[in-house]
Amino acid sequence: MKRVYNFNAGPAALPKEVLKRAQQQLLDYENTGMSLMELSHRSKEYDKVHTKATTLLKELLQIPDNYEILFMQGGASLQFSAIPMNFLAKGKQGNYSLTGSWSEKALKEAQKLGETHIASSTKETAYAGIPSHLELSDNPAYLHITSNNTIFGTQWRDFPSLSPDVPLIADMSSDILSRPLHIEDFSIIYAGAQKNLGPSGVTVVIIKKEVLAECPENIPTMLNYQTFAKNKSLYNTPPTFSIYMLSLVLEWVAEQGGVAAIEEINKKKAGLLYNTIDQSDGFYIGHAENDARSNMNVTFNLSTKELTTAFLAQAKEEGFVGLGGHRMVGGCRASIYNAVPLESCEALAEFMDVFRSNNR
Amino acid sequence: MKRVYNFNAGPAALPKEVLKRAQQQLLDYENTGMSLMELSHRSKEYDKVHTKATTLLKELLQIPDNYEILFMQGGASLQFSAIPMNFLAKGKQGNYSLTGSWSEKALKEAQKLGETHIASSTKETAYAGIPSHLELSDNPAYLHITSNNTIFGTQWRDFPSLSPDVPLIADMSSDILSRPLHIEDFSIIYAGAQKNLGPSGVTVVIIKKEVLAECPENIPTMLNYQTFAKNKSLYNTPPTFSIYMLSLVLEWVAEQGGVAAIEEINKKKAGLLYNTIDQSDGFYIGHAENDARSNMNVTFNLSTKELTTAFLAQAKEEGFVGLGGHRMVGGCRASIYNAVPLESCEALAEFMDVFRSNNR
After folding, report:
1. Which chain B residues are within 8 Å of A241, Cβ to Cβ?
2. How many other C-beta atoms lie within 10 A of the C-beta of residue A162?
């Protein structure tokens, strides 16, 4: 079986073991005589899968009992609207920390629904950094951050500490489960699954129970977090196969030793690539500021457009997939989420060295 | 390989050939060295899948060029809100024809967003029928119908003919692709995939291009139909695997001879079960009125609760899955969507006869 070095930014690589497991079970899930996709979402067999996904996520991220875990649809992009619709009350301001296109999009959706305020931004430095300080508005409804910025390759190392009356909301689509978290610091964490959690099609929301009381009744049922909390995310048919894949990925993370062990491997993977950049005498130019570098997305350029093009073309020939930068910014990007094996990063680092030798 | 007789109401049976195909390709999609789930949604390989799904649906349902085909998320339940958000302008009324719980839910979401009007309802007869006439409001924004009612087992045979200035909107979640349609009669058709189209997680929307101009700019981007139309349903990451499965199911329908051929088989399947009910001397009691009977969901009761319970228990032992009625109404229901083979219906009809002989 052919497998390439997959550095896609999302949908991204999945653990081979997970795919094999899904393949084995595809026509007959655990002796039910049906594919998991053919099971009723109200069946006890599916309920086990749904519950397993919740339980494993709770264990792996040490999510306290006063939080709900929800499975929604529509990706982070729909959360951008759901957050202000539920939590941006009149007279308050949705505060946004801008660290890239995704936080800009989140802000834009909030602007349609209420008052907003930019608490910090690194736009002036082409989003190469993470803000070092915040200026909140007078009456903040919440502060929204994007924990990892796939396009620019930056990541919050330490999260802002806020006074307890300001809820912290984080879009963690591209780094959830990549490192241990202190969940209590957040009121809401949400993440589209397609980077670290599974295939696209399911959005995980971790939400403090006490904020659920704020959800207004007159908003669309499917955008009200209470609907999902009250119905165990089974108000309507959930994306059952995506949640099943999520449960398999979570099992795999547990088998790797959990999130702390995964973080160590992630640091090693990112370290390999950043070292290759730093030791290239300027042949490779990292985009992110050193203290803002993401362990999930390594963004870099070569000194000329021609060299970048040649690098990407040759990399493709050698079986490296997904190394082109986002269509907005160009250049190169290696997305090295949890499921990208160390060997892929070793192979890439080696290729980068060889390409440099041949082209300097 | 064990396979049961799957009569689940949704998620429901999928064609075995489709599942086998997906299984073969699960780790290495068309020699890409990646699972389809691991492909970027911006890759040319995924684009082929996405385009194939659109093209096949267009061919199979003979969708004219002045319609867009969109792939959304959130199921019919999110469409219940998106429809009025986009098309229920001030001063107009969203007209609803009530034929069961799903149309009630659609109405409820519209009531949160604007003026509504009940144009017809069969609630008084426990939703056993389909309305024979309509009374529209003075200034209707649209008429919304549910083409097939999974819970009560009724189906619109002929769709209401309206004056050309009243858009007809249909939730076809549970019977799309089961019979040929005259698409031009509808402004919008939408359907969650998990009955006739594929696994859960993707919602198909067929929408007349001219109505897209009405979508207001100030609504959430992810609920605006224009977003999906302008971006070929790739504004954000779509549920790629669900769309891939949809493309395989559509291929399978084409292989069966298309929608007209499928309709013939569906009539035969439903006929078998309705005949069994009608010839049972009242042992089995159909819920739906004869002229409103659904070819997708056959709902019936036995004369006592005890008999119904015994029937369901014995059916389960014999390998029939999903025959319990919806938790709201009880009784029995056989959901016989496109992918349920004729043999499953033959086996069920036979079982029903044997059970009657043994228990009268």
Report:
1. 199-201, 241-242
2. 18
Q: Which of A6, A73, A112 sits opposite B34 (nearest CB)?
A: A6
A339, closest residue in chain B (CA to CA): B38
Total count of residues recorded for chain B: 360
pLDDT digits (tens, 9 = 90+) for A235-248: 999 999 999 999 99
Q: Which residues pair with A321 in a beta bridge?
A: A6
Task: Count CB pairs under 8 A between chains A and B.
Answer: 219
**Chain B: closest CA distance from residue A308 (Å):** 19
Q: Is the dihedral of CA B21, B22, B23, B28 positive or negative?
A: positive
- Choose, out of A17, A40, A205, the residue to mutate when testing the contact with B (most B CBs < 10 Å): A40
Contact B26 A9 (CB under 8 A): no
CB nearest to B11's CB, from A16, A40, A242: A40
Write the pLDDT tens digit of every residue in B311-346. 999 999 999 999 999 878 889 999 999 999 999 999
Distance between B218 CA and the closest CA of chain A, angstroms: 6
What is residue B1's predicted lDDT score, i.e. its pLDDT?
63
Residues of B with Cβ-Cβ distance to A236 under 8 angstroms: 75-77
B171 is catalytic: yes
Q: How far apart are CA B154 and CA B160, in angstroms?
A: 15
Residue B92: active-site member: no
**Closest-CA residue to A219 (of A141, A142, A113):** A113
Read off the pLDDT band of A177 (50, 70, 90): very high
Q: Residues of A with CB below 8 A from B75's CB? A: 73, 222, 236-237
* Cβ pair B38, A14 in contact under 8 A: yes
Q: How many Å is the Cα radius of gyration of chain A? A: 21
pLDDT at site A1? 63
Would you call B195 a catalytic residue per the annotation?
yes
Which of the listed CATH numbers 3.40.390.10, 3.40.50.300, 3.80.10.10, 3.90.1150.10 matches domain A258-358? 3.90.1150.10
CATH 3.40.640.10 fits B16-255, yes or no: yes
Inform me whether the pLDDT recorded for A329 exceeds 70.
Answer: yes
Please compute, for residue A125, the number of CA atoms within 13 A of its CA located in the half-sphere on the CB side: 14
Q: Which residue is associated with the tokens 């005259």?
A: B182
Q: CA B119 to CA B117: how far, in whole Å? A: 6
| A221 with B77: Cβ contact below 8 A | yes
Residue-wise burial string across A271-297, b where 16 or more C-beta atoms lie within 10 A, e elsewhere: ebbbebbeebeebbebbbeeebbbbbb
- Does the pTM exceed 0.95? yes
